[in-house]
Amino acid sequence: MVGIKGVYQTKFGELWDKSLMGLMLEAGEGAINNAKIERKKIDLILVANMLGGVLEGQNHLGALAGELLGLKNTPAFRVEAACASGGVAINQAAMAIKAGQAKNVLVIGAEKMTDKSNGEVALALMGAASEAERLAGLTFVGLYALMARVYFEKFKANKDDLAYVAIKNHKHASLNPKAQFPFPVLLETVLKSSCVASPLHLFDCSPITDGAAGAVISGEDGKENKIKLAASQIATDSINLTERESLVELKATKIAGQKAYQEAGIKPEEIDLAEVHDCFSIAEIMAVEDLGFCQKGEGFKRIKAGDFDLGGRLPVNLSGGLKACGHPVGATGVKQLVEIVTQLRGEAEKRQVKNCRIGLTHNVGGSGATAVVNILKKL
Ligand code: COA
Q1: What is the reported pLDDT for 110?
Q2: Residue 376: its pLDDT value, please?
Q3: What is the spatial distance between Cα 297 and Cα 292, in angstroms, rounded to a whole number?
Q4: For 292, which DSSP code?
Q5: Chain-wide mean pLDDT for the chain?
Q6: pTM attached to this predicted model
Q7: Residue 190 to residues 163, 185, 203: CA-CA distances in angstroms?
Q8: Which one of 208, 280, 286, 364 would you pick to mutate in the ligand 1 pocket, going by the greatest count of ligand atoms within 8 A of its CB?
């Protein structure tokens, strides 16, 4: 069995006093302590990070993490799959355990983004897009805005519908002390915020964030290993939007989701809660549809109706999501896991879902070229 023994999340936000190294160390130490495991039992370290080389001039993060944590001779390397790096690192940890190559894997997701201007960060993030998209001057806000426009046309949705994603996720973030924006927002605040790439406004976007998260993934049985990684599936699609079959869905999400449900032996209706990749409000609408939580074209109606609120039929993004908890890109997939494990253990305090047993994480790289779906079950 592959289980999650320990988890930890740093505060997310604009962390002036924290370096990439400091964040990695805090998340790594935090996860090891939470797992109550002897440090020397860690036999593999995976560091999920996208932008360390471009923004910080620091590559080679695996060995660096090992040195920082006093685990110098342990196998360690960096995992990169754009904003899906964290989800992919969890998948790689599970693979190493299943292959018999490791028993206890420390996964750290970390990103330091706010020391550079937002323009430099936007350019660096575009390393996850195609050359044609970069040369056309697009940013990720622009790419998702294009998808939103096609979605509006096909399903008769509008800007107000998008706003309910931000309202829900800010409401959840207000219950999460680790969130970057732990406050609720009103409909008029969202609608009156500045337009970034029409139809997406400031509050339709995830922010630029510093932060890290860690997890000890373990193949050992025992009472500390009661949260099972029941499925972990990755799918990919074309990097360039123009090569996609449809712009109102992420096919990689659909494939990874279907394979994960099959691996876990469950149906979408059995999921009690989920953390989905809401890098932009339109992304959450497509995600709840592509993961089978509702019909295609219905996502925005179901969000507005409260289906995915705390107390609703399937709470989504209780951490506040990328939108309001923040999106330190390489850390996001690991943070999603931290939130689900915290919920399944019954330790989520004010945002706790009662009697939850099965949770799902959905982590996307770029505009949908990589998608990872992990399913967790409380034993
Ligand atoms: N939601 C809510 N408030 C936000 C915000 C967001 N996403 N981003 C910034 N803010 C707030 C800041 O806290 C600040 O508030 P203050 O004036 O009270 O201090 C204010 O808005 C201005 O912040 P600033 O950083 O100058 O904003 P910006 O206009 O330069 O950048 C975005 C805003 C949306 C363009 C930027 O956050 C962005 O590019 N996000 C997308 C990141 C991305 O593409 N990630 C990868 C996804 S695939």
Answers
A1: 98
A2: 98
A3: 12
A4: T
A5: 97
A6: 0.98
A7: 6, 7, 5
A8: 208
